[in-house]
Amino acid sequence: MSEIGPVFERCREEKRAAFIPYLTGGDPDLETSGRLLEALAAGGADLIEIGVPFSDPIADGPVNQRAAARALAAGTSLSAVLDLVARYRDKLGVPMVLFTYFNPILAAGVERFAERAEASGVDGVLCVDLPPEEAASELIPALRARDIDSVFLLAPTSDRRRIQAVARASTGFVYYVSRTGVTGAREELPKPLLKEAKRMRRRLSQPLAVGFGISTPEQVRSVARVADGVVVGSALVRIVEEHASEPGLAERLEAQVRELADALR
Amino acid sequence: MSAANDQPIGYFGSYGGRFVPETLMAPIAELARAYDKLSGKRKFRKRLQSLLRDYAGRPTPLYFAERLSRELGGARIYLKREDLLHTGAHKINNAIGQALLAQSMGKERVIAETGAGQHGVATATAAALLDLSCTVYMGEEDMRRQRLNVERMRLLGAEVVGVDAGSRTLKDAINEALRDWVTNVRTTHYVLGSVLGPDPYPRMVRDFHRVIGDEARRQLRRQAGRWWPDLAIACVGGGSNSIGLFTAFLDNERVRMIGVEAGGSGEELGEHAARFRGGSVGVLHGTRTLVLQDTNGQIAGTHSVSAGLDYPAVGPEHVVLAEEGRVEYTSATDAEAIDAFHRLAATEGILPALESAHAIAEAINRAPGLTAKEIVLINLSGRGDKDVESVLAYDRETGDRGSGAGRQTVPRVGREFE
Ligand SMILES: Cc1ncc(COP(=O)(O)O)c(C=O)c1O
Question: For chain A, how are helix, strand and coil distributed in percent, rounded to 5?
Fold first, then answer.
């Protein structure tokens, strides 16, 4: 087992949901990205999701698409993101989940990737375009053999059969996608979200984290009523985009993370 | 096999599958069920057949290209005239099929990607016919070079959304169509335009196009006295017109088959779309197949003078056909395709689509080595009106009518991961 389980346990003891910020690794460049991971931890992240930039991110909205493009332009690869994790995972003491598309892993070779992920201290891997059916033969066994969690997603369209398949395959936690759509901040939470998340949560033994489109402390607080973890991504990535070249970027990000994390405390 | 056993579905050998975000998994399963059910129904098949006949113009002629055959001095060349279909390319076979399916599933909206614009025009046409609303995604580079088709789609009532990302071509249009689909999947059917994407698309799109080869087979029997050609040639973008031609002949070992990819302007990654030459196994747009990519698994840019072949992945069934040695895959360069375009215009009075011109180019190379007893069947997948500006621009830039550069084979890209 990775350290993800204990994080959710600790949060449960504290009677709160875990705060899970997302950033694209290597955005705007690898060095800055490292400092931003420190800011996430300092601001109160319980778990960090770190994105592997991909040339064709079909599940992402414009903000994360541009982040991936910046990271790739700065020379970031899957390998470089793993180096980043290796440098910061233990130093920060915050578990890290890789958020990626499958092709970079396939190009590296699934076994080779799993070896490198283990050596880097990765706690969990979430592949947005790899459902459990396609992960069953290679990726899941490769990760499991190394005590790395394989995290799968559920969505509002998931029917009972799919919930079962994900419940069987997912370890660490299950990620519920709050809406049909791509990543990106929205003004309002979808109306059926709270009810739907409750329905999913009842069927799962793992903790449930909810993400996609959550950006304000109020939204974080209301999602926390039905979830064990709350993910905020694009809202933070946007700060990186808007202030990339300013000296106070890390401080600004840390303040924003603190405000969101404090909403759960 | 079923999702309940966590078993993968929709494979051709080890290629294919369903590599999509969770949001699409249940809808894709529903689509597969709806397609399997509907395609077995007589009423549906009749409706599709009558639209293909009375509306789209099937069967398309099989034409003996006598002058071209004589000039090349070898085999007898027959052209399957998909260019004569309504909207000007084979794409309408699939667009009507999928639009009927969308309608029967109760979807009120269809979306499509398009490269050359032919699939977009076909989908816009089928949507108008069946009273569905229609949005087409198209890379801005393709909108520039296939301007005529952009205007046609708009006149047919479709919304055309330009995509300004990546290489601004077909790959980027598919990205954007998938994002739309993920968002609107409850009301919207995605009419994917080739044998790409997650299951059931590769087999469904193939089934809608196999009429091409089935007809050609019967026509050959009537016109040439036998059921099969010695050589069948088609261009391969995603691979729909080629699989549509090949499927009828796959179990006849006397038939050799060649799929022709875009050789583009050079051998470097980014200068062509020859997946069988420069690709390696990857996952793109929902399917596991051969993909042009760098050693880090980032998808490569591509180039072709022909927008419909300008794409970094190929339909998964083709990869198996190549591995089995059943179909040979080659490429024609931009220059060879342009030459073939002019050649067909001059000898037969036909302006082919630049995609189809790649198949003609291959026949020009092969036919002289064959005898007059042998039959070459080429799928003329579309007409060239849309390409007139591109051809004129190419000729202006090269100062002549192109010169067929040679073809070479380079080894597949190696992999590094450190
Ligand atoms: C006339 C024509 N032929 C061929 C193609 C290539 O697609 P496919 O390989 O799916 O037939 C296109 C695609 O736009 C086309 O318009």
Answer: 50, 15, 35
Q: How far apart are CA B262 and CA B305, in angstroms?
A: 8
Q: Of A60, A149, A196, A228, which residue is the catalytic one?
A: A60
Share of chain B above pLDDT 90, in %: 93
Cα A214 to the center of its chain, rounded Å = 13
Residue B353 CA, closest ligand 1 atom number: 1
Task: Write the pLDDT tens digit of every residue in B199-239.
Answer: 999 999 999 999 999 999 999 999 999 999 999 999 999 99
> Is B165 in Cβ contact with A104 (below 8 Å)?
no
Strands (DSSP E) found in chain A: 18-24, 48-51, 96-100, 124-127, 149-154, 174-177, 208-211, 229-232
Structure tokens of B60? Answer: 């398309």
| Beta carbon of B87 within 6 Å of any ligand 1 atom | no
Q: A56–B283: do the CB atoms touch at under 8 Å?
A: no
**Residue carrying structure tokens 């009507």:** B96
Residue B255 CA to ligand 1 centre (angstroms): 22
Taking only the tens place, the pLDDT of each residue in B248-265 is 999 999 999 999 999 999
Are A151 and A126 contacting, i.e. CB atoms less than 8 angstroms apart? yes
The response to whether residue B356 sits with its C-beta less than 6 Å from ligand 1 reads yes
Q: Point out the residue among A102, A116, A182 whose CB comes nearest to the CB of B19.
A: A102
Nearest CB to B23; choose among A101, A106, A157: A157
Tokens in use for B199?
A: 């299951």
For B265, left (φ over 0), alpha (ψ -120 to 50), or beta? alpha
Report d(CA B199, CA B115) in Å as an integer.
21
Q: Taking a C-beta distance cutoff of 8 angstroms, is the pair A254, A261 a contact?
A: no
CATH class, range A4-262: alpha beta
Phi then psi for A20, rounded to 5 degrees?
A: -125, 95
- Protein residue with its CA nearest to atom 14 in ligand 1: B308
For residue B360, count other CB atoms closer than 10 A to its CB: 29
Q: Does the distance separating the beta carbons of B23 and A177 come in below 8 Å?
A: yes
Do β-strands B76-81 and B375-380 pair in parallel, antiparallel, or remain unpaired?
parallel
Burial of residue B399, with CB atoms counted within 10 A of its CB: 0-12 exposed, 13-18 middle, 19 or more buried: exposed
ipTM of the complex as predicted = 0.97
Angle at Cα B187 formed by Cα B181 and Cα B192, nearest 5°? 40
Contacts of B283 in chain A (CB under 8 A): 101-103, 106, 129
Is A104 within 8 Å of A78 (Cβ atoms)? yes
Residue bearing tokens 């050998």: B13
Is the confidence at residue B98, as pLDDT, over 80? yes
Angle at B210 between CA B208 and CA B211, to 5 degrees: 90
Provide the token pair at A27. 């955005």
The phi and psi torsions of B92 (rounded to 5 degrees) equal -65, -30
Residue type, B342: H
Q: Which residues of B touch A77 (CB under 8 A)?
A: 296, 298
